[in-house]
């Protein structure tokens, strides 16, 4: 099966990938991989969207985090640099929210839901990270599935 990234139909600012993509509604996240949609997802956030979501719309986002936490691998990518946020260089995007509140929400999500937040520095880096995250998950999942098949007496790979 060819590697194809799924882009959620509700994604408003979708990434461009070098591989084929398909648009379909995902149960969680903005990006996944065909054949693995229930196992891996990436949620994309611009900095203003991340701040709004974790500070002002957290109850809805907590439901999304619950779904992501049930997957084999999931993460949130933020198209911003955490160091710039903490040094006050992104004040416009924070809209009067304290940088330490954003940091606290980031840590809370990672510890409470076991969903890591990756501050990628830019939209371009977040796109590259998303592609690498999804590809690496599929490669590891296929290797693990093949190994489990061998252990169950399914023959040899060849």
How would you describe this structure to a colleague?
The protein has a single domain, classed as Rossmann fold (3-Layer(aba) Sandwich). The longest helix is centred in the C-terminal third of the chain and has 29 residues. The protein is built from 6 helices and 6 strands. With 158 residues, it is of the alpha/beta class.
Give the gist of this structure.
This protein is α/β, with parallel strands linked by helices and about 160 residues long. The protein has 6 helices and 6 strands; from the N terminus they run E-E-E-E-H-H-E-H-H-H-E-H. The protein has helices spanning about 45-55, 60-70, 80-85, 90-95, 100-115, 125-150; strands spanning about 5, 20-25, 30-35, 40-45, 75-80, 115-120.
Question: Descriptors for this entry?
Answer:
158 residues, Rossmann fold, 3-stranded mixed β-sheet, 3-stranded parallel β-sheet, 6 helices, 6 strands
Helix-strand blueprint:
Layout: E1 5-7, E2 21-23, E3 31-33, E4 40-45, H1 47-56, H2 58-69, E5 73-78, H3 82-86, H4 91-94, H5 99-113, E6 117-119, H6 123-151
Parallel strand pairs: 1-2, 4-5, 5-6
Antiparallel strand pairs: 1-3
